[in-house]
Known about the structure:
Layout: E1 9-12, E2 21-28, H1 33-43, E3 46-55, E4 59-68, H2 74-84, E5 109-117, H3 122-132, E6 135-144, E7 149-158, H4 166-180, E8 186-192, H5 194-199, H6 208-214, E9 234-238, E10 246-253, H7 258-268, E11 272-280, E12 285-293, H8 303-318, E13 322-328, E14 331-339, H9 350-361, E15 364-375, E16 378-388, H10 397-409
Antiparallel strand pairs: 1-2, 2-4, 3-4, 3-11, 5-7, 5-8, 6-7, 6-15, 9-10, 10-12, 11-12, 13-14, 14-16, 15-16
Helix pairs in contact: 1-2, 1-7, 3-4, 3-9, 7-8, 9-10
Amino acid sequence: MGILHDDVVIIGEAEKEGKATVITVNCPDKTGLGCDLCRIILFFGLSIVRGDVSTDGKWCYIVFWVVGKQRARWSLLKKRLIEACPSCSSASGISYYRSELQPPKPPDVFLLKFCCHDRKGLLHDVTEVLSELELIIHKVKVSTTPDGKVVDLFFITDTRELLHTKKRRDDTIEQLSAILGDPLITIDIELVGPEIAACSQASSFLPSAMTEDMFDLELPGSIQSGTSTSDSVSITMDNSLSPAHTLVQIICQDHKGLLYDIMRTLKDYNIQISYGRFSTKPRGKCELDLFIMQADGKKIVNPSKQKSLSSRLRMELLRPLRVTVVSRGPDTELLVANPVELSGKGRPLVFYDITHALKMLGPCIFSAEVGRHVVGDREWEVYRILLDEGDGLSVPRNKIEKGVWKMLMGWE
């Protein structure tokens, strides 16, 4: 069962622009591996247009066809995918995800703080640099002073685990200084203790309208885009086609991170995919066939379990994120929430997409907070953006809500 380290992940780059790059993964299996791989691919700004997954319960073979950035960092993506794969020594038995078993050492948290003159799109430009550097934003507090300056605090971790070195910090500061272009800028990066990181949490207060509407598990008649309805998702389960597996067939509208949302849901339910096929069709339609089994190696025959899984999949496909714009007296606040995996990981690039959408739409950001909140039985990552209306918000609030939603869904 030996396999060379470099052959665990093979990336065949597209020969022509517009064609898909093929990513092949050949390694020991574990429940949730597909979710972890899809999350990394999404983090690198790529979209999966086709996928094939097969496993015998110990070893898996996965192929993704991806499209996206022309200057994607393929060698770095390969390294990150290999790091997510179980070692070959684990092939003797499948490993199931358990949040309480051998939790990984939490990464060091750093505080990035800077002060400079404010300008339109500044927060998005900073977020883009941090994304390119593989620095993960966990919390952010942004404020604007009366004299037109911004004081920004980012609590970040380093995917490369090098931010404790002078070279990595200097390189980060240099790239941020270049994009900000302000001679009066002050930037500092320092390691903070867990008690400071904990104190940096955003306000625990959530507006009642937000908790009632945004976190309602009952599907509304229409979704933010105005084009999706509950009828646009078809989920069927069949136990007659396989002696050992439940077949789940899904037909739905494509969106950014769709395969990640499905894999994340199955991972949280501790469900193993033995075989799966995913493909995109004309007009943005997607079709998936997944042969799955529970952690005990059995089919899902209990009707209540089938209904629960089907309902959760439908919700995650129609409302993978929650977006709303609310009034705060004379002010306007944009709120975005996305569910956190049981492993504690949040959806990648959400803050990047929010700031990108606002940069395109026009309204400036007066302040921003990112924090995590437990609502019901789920943990959510919540982004609260207070918009600077100046002499009056020139962009209608419903346009902001739809614009941010479309950017997050990859429809812009």
